[in-house]
Amino acid sequence: MPQHTRSRYVPLPMPLRPRRRSLGGLLGLSLLLASCGGPAGTPAPTTPTATTMQLNGTRVLSPTQVQFGVTPLSGTQTATGTLSNPSVTFSTAGVSGTVSVCGQVSVQNTVTAAVTLDATGSMRSTDPEEKRRAAAKAFVARMTGTSQAAVLSFEASSTPSASMIGSVLHQDLTADQTALNTAIDNATYASGSTNFYDAVVDAVKVASRAGRSNPIVLALTDGIDNSSSNSPNDAIAAAKAAGVPVYAIGLDATGSLDFAEMERIASETGGLFRSNIAAGDLDAYFSQLYNAFTAQGCLELNLAAAPAPGTTVTGTLSVDVSDYGKATSRLSVPFSYAVRDTSEPK
């Protein structure tokens, strides 16, 4: 008899179901790829966060502690980013110390500035071509959006405007650039002696009384105060009470004037100070200050010992500036400031 072969039942394989990846797993994979330069070897960013850095001025907190306002730039435009890894090299013999980041880049789109211009008789010789006129107009030309400015002048021979102590208010806060330029023309003259401290008190009042956010005072002078009814301490107290930092510019190309009190007003109110400025440099520096008002960080110098008064401390500050999606930039900027005798503030 033929033998029957018994067939065996072999089950068919079940179709495989695709495995689901968890959201967390996909996220982890994405982060891993990003950390390695992206999928399929995507190159790291090459566009720099910034290309240069400008130094806006100094803020002297003590003989061994000095802060610098700095603004990173990409071309001619302000740039944002995180400041890290600062370093300093000194050119002045016998001076040493360290530097740290004392403030990340703070950005604001709206500027509220009371600009007060020296109109004393000495301006005939320090600014004979009235460069301050063009500089102030260039500052106004950069205003955008809801930014506003006011224009004042000061000297002791003119009758002050109503509610002012020693200043003529040519234009209250406004965004009208035509009106501001007319006011700048009217504020550009030369007569009388210097009442800088009164001018600061007046400008603080104008900058703050409208209740706008982040008001500042921009003050230019070429001389030492000899006519104010207010003292430096009065000017500082008024600015602090109103929350208005004073950015002070000493017009002194030769570096021969003692601006110790002017520097103290700027430093103690949270502003910045700059001197050794010639009239021909005003246009560029007013533009730098507009950059500072819209985007500024802070680097702090801590010296191992206090230099002697009269010393000019020079060197170079360097810092990394980084932003998401851009290459980290290592930027450097030279610095220079005069050590003033602040042992007997007035």
Structural commentary:
By secondary structure, the protein is α/β, with parallel strands linked by helices. The protein has a single domain (46-346), classed as von Willebrand factor, type A domain (Rossmann fold). The chain has helices spanning 23-35, 123-126, 131-141, 177-187, 196-208, 232-242, 260-268, 282-294; strands spanning 52-62, 65-74, 77-78, 82-90, 97-107, 112-118, 148-154, 167-174, 215-221, 246-251, 273-277, 295-303, 312-322, 329-338. The protein has a 6-stranded mixed β-sheet with strand order 8-7-6-9-10-11, with helices on both faces. A hairpin with a 2-residue loop joins strand 1 (52-62) and strand 2 (65-74). Helix 3 (131-141) packs parallel to helix 8, helix 5 packs parallel to helix 6 (232-242) and helix 6 (232-242) runs parallel beside helix 7 (260-268). The longest helix is centred in the N-terminal third of the chain and has 13 residues, at 23-35. The termini are far apart. Mean pLDDT is 89; it is low at 1-24 and 26-38.
